[in-house]
Design goal:
This protein is an alpha+beta fold. The chain is built from 1 helix and 6 strands.
């Protein structure tokens, strides 16, 4: 699993990085998007894409799948 916070170039984080992480077969990628106040979990990489993704507003719990299998408390991210 990789976790990142959007940089000063958030569009690159939202568009280019998901494809790079999928091609690298990173099974889970958690992106904390400061500008959009949202957390996106990308999963199930296939080729150059993550067909499964879940976006949750910052401050709400983010359910993480196996092997983690717990809810990530993001209240402290506000």
């Amino acid at each position: 699993m990789v976790a990142e916070v959007t940089s000063g170039r958030p569009q690159a984080d939202r568009v280019a990085k998901p494809h790079c992480h999928a091609r690298g077969a990173i099974p889970l990628w958690l992106l904390v998007d400061r500008e959009r106040s949202a957390i996106t979990l990308f999963s199930e990489p296939s080729g150059a894409d993550h067909p499964a993704l879940t976006t949750t507003p910052t401050g709400r719990p983010v359910p993480l799948p196996d092997p983690f299998a717990f809810e990530l408390d993001t209240a402290g991210f506000l």
